[in-house]
């Protein structure tokens, strides 16, 4: 069905087709129609103390407001991550802010955390029937000074804690000024310390410990990757997601829209993201799980991420270009690659 729909969707503006596709997936979920295709088989994996029915998840960004949770669940994802959500609603950056580079199976976005705010997201989570693994990705509002970013992250953590299977802290989007500076040095350590303390307080309050993952950028040097991994591990966080979009333009330099500002995702970021996973795996030695995202457009790409040291993978641009068939293909390839 997606093969028939894609040409129509790709004739629309990227953001228009995204909104329409999200509406269709949400409607299919409400009507119970998403499970009609060939769903992936079970391939259970334990990560962060949670059991995932398969290791292929939906990355944050496709469903920022939790509008289509049941629809995505019905497609066979092993887990779903919604957001990025901020404490207060915000419109994001001016349009146009989303661009397809079809020749490269790539996307550039500078959405800017456009979302309806954390309270609206929570209401949608409450209304969803899905009872699987749900990640909620939190960020800071654009108008919050980076020096006070920790305040926004703690608000987000407090609000979503009771409704999430795990929580992702997004410090790596290139589209919020100053945000990526939180990945380094004292700023990172201060943020992680505050998150860890609040996590402990909330675990007592709610009677359960919700894992926290930190999402990092692909544009770090190997030394920066190692230092960031050490800080995240030493702070007692539960996982690292590698990676967000890249500011680089390698492989797309001469294509239409390549000069647009924003983060590049899709096939051109695959090798860069996989390299980050390998460096993380070498440094962490299995002491902290890695969730891999970036450039997965085939089952082989997904299996490559697992071979590089990831425990789970997430789809975003690959799902847009390939559709739901990629979920099953990725699960099958990972299963075939297991010893």
From TrEMBL:
Pfam families: DHO_dh. Keywords: Cell membrane, Flavoprotein, FMN, Membrane, Oxidoreductase, Pyrimidine biosynthesis. One of its GO terms (cellular component) is plasma membrane. GO terms for biological process: 'de novo' pyrimidine nucleobase biosynthetic process; 'de novo' UMP biosynthetic process. Residues 43-334 form the Dihydroorotate dehydrogenase catalytic domain. FMN binds at residues 60-64, 84, 137, 170, 215, 243, 266, 295, 316-317. It is an enzyme of class 1 (oxidoreductase). Catalyzes the conversion of dihydroorotate to orotate with quinone as electron acceptor. This is Dihydroorotate dehydrogenase (quinone). It comes from Pseudomonas oryzihabitans. The lineage of its organism: Bacteria, Pseudomonadati, Pseudomonadota, Gammaproteobacteria, Pseudomonadales. The gene is pyrD.
